Amino acid sequence: xxxxxxxxxxxxxxxxxxxxxxxxxxxxxxxxxxxxxxxxxxxxxxxxxxxxxxxxxxxxxxxxxxxxxxxxxxxxxxxxxxxxxxxxxxxxxxxxxxxxxxxxxxxxxxxxxxxxxxxxxxxxxxxxxxxxxxxxxxxxxxxxxxxxxxxxxxxxxxxxxxxxxxxxxxxxxxxxxxxxxxxxxxxxxxxxxxxxxxxxxxxxxxxxxxxxxxxxxxxxxxxxxxxxxxxxxxxxxxxxxxxxxxxxxxxxxxxxxxxxxxxxxxxxxxxxxxxxxxxxxxxxxxxxxxxxxxxxxxxxxxxxxxxxxxxxxxxxxxxxxxxxxxxxxxxxxxxxxxxxxxxxxxxxxxxxxxxxxxxxxxxxxxxxxxxxxxxxxxxxxxxxxxxxxxxxxxxxxxxxxxxxxxxxxxxxxxxxxxxxxxxxxxxxxxxxxxxxxxxxxxxxxxxxxxxxxxxxxxxxxxxxxxxxxxxxxxxxxxxxxxxxxxxxxxxxxxxxxxxxxxxxxxxxxxxxxxxxxxxxxxxxxxxxxx
Amino acid sequence: xxxxxxxxxxxxxxxxxxxxxxxxxxxxxxxxxxxxxxxxxxxxxxxxxxxxxxxxxxxxxxxxxxxxxxxxxxxxxxxxxxxxxxxxxxxxxxxxxxxxxxxxxxxxxxxxxxxxxxxxxxxxxxxxxxxxxxxxxxxxxxxxxxxxxxxxxxxxxxxxxxxxxxxxxxxxxxxxxxxxxxxxxxxxxxxxxxxxxxxxxxxxxxxxxxxxxxxxxxxxxxxxxxxxxxxxxxxxxxxxxxxxxxxxxxxxxxxxxxxxxxxxxxxxxxxxxxxxxxxxxxxxxxxxxxxxxxxxxxxxxxxxxxxxxxxxxxxxxxxxxxxxxxxxxxxxxxxxxxxxxxxxxxxxxxxxxxxxxxxxxxxxxxxxxxxxxxxxxxxxxxxxxxxxxxxxxxxxxxxxxxxxxxxxxxxxxxxxxxxxxxxxxxxxxxxxxxxxxxxxxxxxxxxxxxxxxxxxxxxxxxxxxxxxxxxxxxxxxxxxxxxxxxxxxxxxxxxxxxxxxxxxxxxxxxxxxxxxxxxxxxxxxxxxxx
Lengths: 530, 530
Fold this sequence. Notes:
homodimer, alpha/beta, eight-stranded parallel β-barrel, 18 helices, 39% helix, globular
């Protein structure tokens, strides 16, 4: 069966979406999850458009990926300079990434009205930029911007741009529906023409679509049906305006319905947790109605459906949900079954018998119903496992805490927290100031504990995310706090849920520190992926 | 040009979606908006499945619609009874609705495994139920459930079901992709066959799709391309699992890109407000990334885009946003220039001269450097503009506030906030409890202000998001709080940034309320599109 090359641009084109924000470290975690999912090419951005991107490429250069190659993104050379004298192309040539994706103009309207570049010069810009990078030992992908609009206005010129790129040594030429308004029948017709026109060359044909007409996924499929073998998209369809093509829908459509080869069975079964993990990192609520991976995608209402599904799931389900790591009904989590829980426990060096595993599954379900979500909170989950097996020692017993934040008449904000705890029969009372209530509680707690547990000094809170779970209730609703914590070697996550943001933060803080201390007291089987 | 009949099932199939809830009175408001939009047929549900549906049909029977006819929904008769003796068909026959939509089995798998009905009896159920209602003077639409799955398993039988319905007098037979997993090329192939097979009869062909493969819109378009002239869907794609086909995307695709006749120009220009209105009635945040009507659908970042759009909007926009009642959104970001700021100011009814605009740009840059981000905080941005032009009146002058959160020895968490403010030379001191510190501050502030500004009662916080901006500093880093606030008519966003999460929340809260009150104190040039 034809293999389709999967190209993820969440970290570049996806980041153009409203509210998309990831640190370099978080982008690295996304890249590893994409690699584990089985993505072939991960577009990471322009290697030095700003210090954050520079840091990302430095980090990426030091990593090893099992499946994926990293692609650096840039533009064809500027008008009137030679490719090797173009500073941006030089940056791409010098960066570690083995693959370079260059975007270039294809639509005469843009040549005439936006960049004001002559048609022949544009072709030279394409040819020379690609040839330069190929000469530097790079694999080059050419993204033909606005291809379908260009094809509609001036078919001959649009095809010449592709042919120029192919002749210059591009490995893949990608037809982009940059403005996203093209419908599937036009994608299909243009791609037939493209594939025929480039049949003599050995270049791969790719497709890059946007969802402005609600057809991004169908457009990608239409291109593949005509011979495209490289598909660009983003996780969950993130991207500017209406978003990019959603790889999380395209992959199972290609593999389960059209028989193309994309991922291994195990990788495909990680589709749902991967989609959710990346949503959580971005602090977005995973879309419950998302095809294949949404919490509602296999939700059945009404007894008739449920009975029919029990008799034969194909009566009301277009695929078996477990194939994509999803499950029937409402609760969705990586940890849905006993087997999964036992596997996770083994990773942490904990033996769980069947009864204990069933108990954990029931407890997780009850907690998820209250808003907990363990996909991004591995530290809290492991503590839950340890509590189940008795292999757990609390750091302290809480008597009480109090946090006060005050904006004074002179405009200064003062924060102070007091904690009262018991350790080994002794009472500790400690007060600290902080930049905010969680910081003050953190400091007060550490002040009390650090002499007994000096390892606490090495533990830093690296991220803190808050989300309201029932958005219709505003600040009175249930709050979920996710903390990421590091001791320099490892990063782990913890979670707290409460109506009160400070109480939820406290809970996540205590889990984070307790997990870190468990780690210092014994060797852990499973390190986090960061 | 071919006219396409638009059939909305938001009030029936759409209501199967998670969290969908409307009173009979609200459904009536939806029906009127659908009628004004130019929908031809409004499916309202089964006339007596419960008292709420009964009430709805009573209300609907008393209304007059300009464009739309109301359709009652039901199933083919039960096995082994005559149609006129079937109580459910009798209810439909007796209700005022001139159109009846009957759903019936088409897939042999369902006949064999779910309803256990013999194939010939199923055909009689279809024929007799339709003939009965036609005899009662109704226009009948036949919804062939699971048509595409049935066609794949037993083409001949699936087509016989349609032909039976046509022969019995159905005005329209609708091919339904009930489980939603069919891809466009299969819809296209089956519809070609259906249209050819029913060419001799005068029956209209319809299409009803679901989004389980992310292709519901493309599937509807594929069916129309093969000759379907009746399209079923829901507003915003609401519906169970992954939702129904989104009429709000399908309509402009058909009319603006494929040249079919659907709505008048004026009706099409009401598409965005209609989509937002129905979302608000359902208490859902309108999806900002929704094709055509989303807040981000025509959003432009970056100076190059903005300049190109100014030169020729077709360079970066697939349609002119005003055609569907949407508007171009120039996102305010570090990359924005004076032109963008002036355009945004004009939208808000504020005149900014060049100097003032340059001043705002410099101020936005400085604020964004500190972590502010105005893309999702239109309320805060407009206040910033008003402050620049002197067209700003604070709600109050703050003396001080204090929030205390305490976890007591008995495990209870208590939260209390006190504010001291000045309004018109008078000092107000107010204390309130809350579920968390922000909720308590919000309550204390409103308690002090609500007698002076009763409109504050109508303002609700609908969303609250917190992020740490410099993750390497953990809880001591800068915190960004985004609030979404609504007064029922409009939704706006505000932002606060501080090292202290409570101070950042306070800042966003004050902006949110001040913006809301600006709206009540004067007519704004720029109303939100909701």
